[in-house]
Amino acid sequence: MTLESLFRFLFEYRPVVFQQGEFRLAPSAGSYVAAAIAVAAIAAAVIGYRRAALRGRTRDRVILTGLRIATICLVLFCLFRPLLVVKAAVPQQNFLAVLIDDSRSMQIPDWGTEPRGAFVRQAFGRDAALVKSLSDRFVVRTFRFSSVAARLQSTDDLAFAGSQTRLGAALNGVRQELAGLPLAGMVLVTDGADTTDASLSDALLGLRAAAVPVFTVGVGRDRLARDVQVDRVSTPRSALLGTSLVIDAVVTQTGYAGETVSVDVEDEGRIVGSQEVKLPADGEPAAVRLRFTAADAGPRVFRFRIAPRPGELVAENNVREALIDVADRREQILYYEGEPRPEMAFLNRAVHEDKNLSVVTLQRTADNKYQRFLDEDN
User: Fold this and answer.
1) 7-27 confidence digits (pLDDT tens)
2) Model pTM score
3) CA distance 189 to 123
4) Strand 244-254 to strand 286-293: parallel, antiparallel, or no bridges (unpaired)?
5) Which residues pair with 125 in a beta bridge?
6) 368 φψ region: left (φ > 0), alpha (ψ -120 to 50), beta (else)
7) DSSP letters for 286-322
């Protein structure tokens, strides 16, 4: 006999029922009277066995006392009417939210030879067996999401063109839309590629507090066999015209360890910078430092790109874009010096060739006397 069978023999239900249920006591007025009698009976048992100290061994008296107390407690426990409250979904009385990822990553062809979106349309289409089974028990509400969640009438309306995947925002949005309804749970269908910096834990904690479970359905492979991607690019929000920028990027790969690739910086199709990098072992990040000049003024979208490699399934993640506002102006710098020092000459010499900087030096020559030096180009 297994432990689960023994548990069911003693307590009638399987352990999973007790894990999902809520244990309660429903005592009546007589239960408290029985509790008082039980306390008196326990006290009498302890006193009685202590008085019999001369007629038996100590170990026997302790065992008998323990058995009698355990028996009284068991009877008292039964008199307090223990209950197990289990929540059950009433057919067609509870809602179930199904959230389907509608981002571009669902176009990756790693479900056999078909894209991930084909699996979603097949498994969650209107005539799918899974959807029919869920509809027999719940009122199913289907949503699409990428940056935000929206109602979905049919999986044929899925475009898989979203530029972001915000899992936390999607869960919060659906929970707010279905607020006030008996929500039995949420089914999240996604490849798990969350592209935001927001924490998913906050959304899950809110659902847990509302006793709404989340069931995840993973789509696609957890790791592509051959893939190169630009993970992160750190750029300033603004720069001055003609400034030489130094940008840090992070590149990861799978299946191309040891190869050398070129990371190019493009400005409206023109390559303005390039740096070669040797790809590290699979899964390890490689830091790349890129240098280029902001030659045109205005808001500029710079593309950091690696050319697709032979056999690469996904080329979309080889590119990262960053918006930099290139300002055509001269920054004014006031340098205050308390006494003559050689550092002032070095500073003026350093910024003299930079047409974007204008330095004015105010130097104290005596008490309450100052001398102003202007850059020759001012």
Assistant:
1) 777 777 777 666 767 778 888
2) 0.55
3) 10
4) antiparallel
5) none
6) left
7) EEEEEEEE--S-EEEEEEEEEPPPTT-S--GGGEEEE
